[in-house]
Specification:
The structure holds two protein chains of two kinds. In chain A, 40% of the residues lie in helices and 19% in strands. The radius of gyration of chain A is 21 Å and the shape is globular. Chain B is an alpha+beta fold. In chain B, the strands form two sheets. In chain B, strands 2-5 form a two-stranded antiparallel ribbon. In chain B, strands 3-4 form a two-stranded antiparallel sheet. Classes of the chains: A alpha/beta, B alpha+beta. At the A-B interface, β9 and α8 of A face β1 of B.
Chain lengths: 407, 131
């Protein structure tokens, strides 16, 4: 292959963006079609530099919008290449129309989404509004909590997405700035090991197979549309999580780093638990340990795979918890939060007597502090002690003004 | 196909043009190509045609203008001889008539329901040029 390999130290100090860019280099992406947007820009910038410096054999396509970026990725993936890009927030929103095309056409594109709030008001900082916007788009969604995760989950994402039993695009989410621009020690893989884990791209129904011409992007009306959507849902529901588990197992054997579809921290004997995503998981873990010193048996659940939603894994993880808090970092705008609803849906028909309350926090990059979480765990324990939920079902954390609570 | 279930499709709503791998497709006549049921070659896509071209071979000089200009590849020509119009794919745009150089024209537009034999029987005669 006509490119240079890069010598990496075992531990490099990388932020989440650079970690993702390095993973994209090591996966030897054929085509990156991209349009810049804060805070994800350094990912595609990083790939472009690796390409220009001769570390990748591929194509970087500069386009005029995120809609065009994903459209370019779709074309390249349909042609039969390994394809990735990155975006955030408004760019992600502009991509939405094409996200459904990518998943419906079953093209294994990897999209690094550096989570950022959605305007208005305009805001460049991290919350999960864009991640939530993508949740019905038919993509697989992985959530990274730190730069190490952002690096590792890119390899996992390619491996799962490109599997011929899966053939679905995957997003790797990381929190804007808190992960994307915070440098931490990242344990690296050498180039050959990393590429070996992902493997050569195996085309399927590619348009560059001239002996077997195919038509991509077809139209179906009431006659066939439902069957294709049903197939896609079926594959998301039945095939993806086992493949992810296999990839996690294989990755653990290779690196010693263990990922789980649902991450459980101090949960075995816990009475109260916080369920959250992104960088909040790490803060919650720290606070849970402090709560335990105060005699509150606190635990944390991190959602590693947002879609397909790990329904049974969540049931199992939360079956003995007495009071649960679902933390949503996106304004539900007129409903309980997504996590609240998913947890309620997963637990409703089980034997659990758990009390579930929802919290909306961190919009537009507002910090979720240890003090907030200490109060939250204390409230959960108060619910346990009272045997009923003592607060409204939906509360806002960290917003200025009179206390905001509903339901 | 009508009873095909959700689990019986190839994924991605992807359609194959041919039933088998192909080679030298440019050198294979359309009727000899292994087109699949999913190819539009097998479907009539002309049902909104209002006027149709009628071909009168008596005046045709096989210049191939119609074959070159037809935007839907609906002029059937073999060994550089004009044979007729593929009425499953012709949309009735009339470009073939417009570009036909003979006098009278070898292709003329008629009502979709017009009888072809009658049309040919009543074909216009040569137009004398004004001196």
């Amino acid at each position: 292959m006509a490119f240079d390999k890069m010598e990496l130290r075992d531990v490099e100090v990388w932020d989440g963006n650079f970690a993702a860019a390095q993973a994209m280099r090591q996966c030897q992406i054929d085509v990156v079609s991209a349009y810049p947007i804060t805070p994800s820009t350094p990912i595609v910038e990083g790939y472009a530099k690796f390409l220009a410096d001769g570390y990748v054999e591929g194509e970087f396509v500069m386009v005029e919008s995120e809609h065009a970026a994903m459209s370019g990725c779709i074309g390249a993936a349909a042609a039969g290449g390994r394809v990735a890009t990155a975006t955030s927030s408004q760019g992600f929103a502009l991509m939405v129309e094409t996200l459904y095309q990518a998943s419906g056409m079953r093209l294994p594109i990897v999209l690094n989404v550096v989570n950022r709030a959605l305007a208005a008001p305009l805001n460049v900082n991290g919350d999960h509004s864009d991640m939530y916007l993508g949740r019905d788009s038919g993509w697989i969604q992985f959530d990274a909590y730190c730069p190490q995760d952002a690096y590792d989950l890119n390899f996992i994402a390619f491996k799962v997405a490109e599997d011929h039993d899966v053939r679905l695009p995957a997003m790797v989410h990381q929190d804007g700035f808190m992960t994307s621009h915070t440098a931490q020690g990242v344990h690296t893989l050498d180039d050959d090991t990393a590429y070996g884990f992902v493997g050569d791209f195996k085309p399927m129904n590619d348009m560059l197979d001239f002996e077997n011409p195919v038509t991509h992007g077809v139209q179906t009306e009431e006659d066939w549309h439902f069957e294709h959507k049903a197939r896609q849902h079926n594959d998301l529901m039945t095939k993806v999580l086992p493949k992810i588990q296999n990839a996690f197992d294989e990755f653990e054997k290779l690196t010693g780093r263990k990922y789980n579809i649902v991450e459980k921290y101090d949960l075995d004997d816990a009475d109260v638990a916080v369920v959250c995503m992104g960088t909040s998981v790490e803060t919650a873990r720290e606070v849970a340990l402090e709560m335990r010193e105060k005699g509150i048996k606190a635990g944390v659940v991190g959602i590693r795979v947002v879609r397909p939603f790990p329904f049974f894994e969540i049931q199992e993880a939360l079956k003995d918890i007495k009071a649960i808090a679902a933390l949503d970092r996106s304004s539900p705008n007129g409903a309980p939060g997504m996590l609240f609803n998913e947890l309620a849906g997963a637990l409703f028909n089980t034997d659990t007597k758990a009390m579930l309350s929802g919290y909306v926090y961190g919009l537009g990059g507002r910090d979720l502090t240890k003090k907030h979480l200490t109060e939250l765990f204390t409230e959960l324990q108060a619910n346990v002690d009272a045997g009923k939920i003592t607060t409204p079902l939906q509360q806002f954390i960290g917003v200025r003004g009179p206390k905001l609570a509903f339901l | 196909m009508a009873n095909t279930g959700w689990d019986e499709f190839e994924i991605g709503a992807m359609l194959r043009t041919f039933n088998e791998p192909i080679e030298n497709i440019a050198g294979t006549l359309q009727e000899d190509r292994p087109y699949s049921e999913n190819s539009s070659f097998r479907a009539s896509v002309a049902d909104w045609r209002i006027e149709k071209p009628v071909f009168n071979k008596d005046y045709c000089i096989d210049c191939q203008f119609c074959w070159i200009y037809c935007p839907d590849v609906s002029i059937i020509s073999r060994d550089k001889k004009m044979i007729g119009v593929d009425m499953d794919h012709c949309k009735g745009c009339g470009i073939c008539v417009e570009v036909c150089p003979t006098n009278p024209k070898s292709l003329l537009m008629f009502e979709e329901k017009a009888d072809e034999e009658q049309a040919i029987a009543n074909w216009p005669t040569k137009e004398e040029k004004e001196k």
